[in-house]
Amino acid sequence: MVHSSERARHWRYAELPGVDLLRARYVRKTFVRHTHEHFVIAAIADGVEVFHHRGADQYAGAGALALVNPDTAHTGRAGVPEGWRYGAVYPSAEVVAEIAAETTSLRGTPGFVRPVLDDPYAVGLVHEVLRATEEGNALAADTLLRVAVTRLLRLNGGLLPQRDVRTAGARVAARARAVLEERMVEPPTLERLAADLGTSPFALLRAFRDAYGMPPHAWLTDARVRRALRLLDTGASPAAVAVEVGFTDQPHLNRHFTRIVGVPPGAYQRERKNVQDLAGRLCLPSGA
Question: How confident is the model at residue 197, as a pLDDT?
Answer without folding.
Answer: 97
